[in-house]
Amino acid sequence: MINKPLVLTYFYLLIYILLSSGVILYNKWVLSPRYFNFPFPITLTMIHMAFSGLVAFFLIRVFKVVAPVKMTFEIYATCVIPISAFFASSLWFGNTAYLHISVAFIQMLKALMPVATFFMGVMCGTDKPRCDVFLNMVLVSIGVVISSYGEIHFNIVGTVYQVTGIVAEALRLVLTQVLLQKKGLTLNPITSLYYIAPCSFVFLFVPWCLLEKPGMAVSQIQFNFWIFFSNALCALALNLSTFLVIGRTGAVTIRVAGVLKDWILIALSTVIFPESTITGLNIIGYAIALCGVVMYNYIKVKDGRASQLPSDSIPDRITKDWKFEKKSSDIFNPNSSSDTNGGSGGNFDASELNDEESPLLSSRLSHIGRSQLSNHTA
Q: Which segments carry the region annotation Disordered (predicted)?
């Protein structure tokens, strides 16, 4: 007999992997001088933010699909604004890296995401220094260095942009945990876009005026509406698929899916963009880094399971997980509450399912639940 919930879960995972890979490859194709030749990453990011914010506005204010949260000026100023600033920065630097380095090498550099998140968490007090985790971070860093050394088309500018974007993303994720959860604020995917996308657009407007507007004024590039509309639509669809995956899967499944997505993306990029050459040293270095990431994931999953209350029997845990999945899959019900339950089938780390194209991750930790505050170092 077919297990329909399980089939649906893996279908969501497949959609997430396809959309995540597709958005990254699409952005590379749009920005690359070799293909569509639209070398304005800030403009492309602003289009994404404007489209996402506009869709969220209509869903909340016009069609009333979901109700807006109680957002005070104090919460907006101290939480939404700084998180949006780092989110805009991570998108800006991450998309700019596509102009200089290949998608495959960018994915290899993204192995540094757990390293950046761990150290930012320690600095902000949301994580504790641990010897085993630190050794994993060293292993990941060594692998990335080897992979960078083996990169044929190594570009220091693109590498700096990508690493800076990773640091900004790590700060955003840590700030989400520190600020939003401290205020007890929970955001579903639509309200997340409603509040964060417009603010990110404003932050990007200043560097756009200084860096890209003068070049666009003299550029001969023509604006293709359907290209940019479909690109923004894919980014919006990625946001929703990310939420569905988080709501229906456990920590182990999500981590495996993230690793699988990276390998698929690296392979696809070498096919779609022939100039993206992968060397043996690239593969060796990335494999070493991946070993560190897998070991880190194992530690986080083990700690997450250990933090569960021993009094919970297996049937009780299954019942709780089923209730949460049912709630999470009904995201378009205006009467549903996103803070009723405190778990999602496993404890999640800030760097899981990390994708710089997805604004929903800015509210992901707060959505998972306030119970994570008690064991955020797990």
A: 328-378
